[in-house]
Specification:
alpha+beta; seven-stranded mixed beta sheet
C-alpha cells in the first residue's frame, strides 16, 4: 500500500468447485433438503448442493447431487455462478434450476447424509428465511440469482 503497510492474506483452496440446484416443482414451489449441519442447532433448509468430482463437468455433478440428495432427476438449466468467499477461498459455485422433476432409478443416498426432502412454497420459504432456518449463503445467493434472471426475462 502507499502508506507502506503490508497485509498478509490467507487464501484457501478446496481443490474443487461446487454445484447448487434449485428444483422447481412449479412456479410457486421448490423442493428443498432438510438436514442437520455440524455446528448448527436444529435443522436447516437448503437446496441440493455438493462438490464437483475430478473430471466431472458441472452439469453432470448437478444431476448427480440432485439424485443423491432428493431421489429425483430433472432437466437442468444453467442459471449462473458465484464465489461465496472470494477474498479467502478459490471456490466457485455453479447454479442450475431443475424442472420436469421425476423419480430416479439411480437414487442411492450417501451413508453420511441424513436428508429429508420437503416441498416448500415460496411463501413458506420466505418464512423459513425470516426465522433463520436456512444458514448457508448458497441458498440465499441462489435465490437472488434466480430472482434477477426472472426479472430480466420479464423485461
Amino acid at each position: 500500500y502507499k502508506n507502506g503497510k503490508q497485509i498478509e492474506r490467507v487464501s484457501l483452496s478446496l481443490g474443487r468447485n461446487a454445484v447448487l440446484i434449485i428444483p422447481l416443482i412449479d412456479d410457486a414451489r421448490y423442493m428443498m433438503c432438510v438436514q442437520q449441519r455440524p455446528g448448527r442447532a436444529g435443522m436447516t433448509y437448503e437446496f441440493p448442493n455438493g462438490g464437483i468430482k475430478s473430471k466431472e463437468a458441472p452439469k453432470e455433478a448437478a444431476q448427480r447431487e440432485l439424485i443423491e440428495e432428493t431421489g429425483y432427476e430433472g432437466d437442468l438449466h444453467y442459471l449462473g455462478e458465484f464465489y461465496p468467499f472470494q477474498s479467502a477461498l478459490d471456490l466457485k459455485v455453479f447454479v442450475y434450476t431443475a424442472t420436469n422433476l421425476r423419480s430416479s432409478s439411480k437414487y442411492e443416498a450417501e451413508d453420511y447424509e441424513k436428508i429429508s426432502v420437503k416441498k416448500v412454497s415460496k411463501q413458506k420459504l420466505l418464512k423459513i428465511i425470516s426465522k433463520r432456518k436456512t444458514y448457508g449463503c448458497y441458498t440465499l445467493v441462489a435465490l437472488s440469482l434466480l430472482s434477477m434472471v426472472k426479472n430480466n426475462e420479464k423485461k
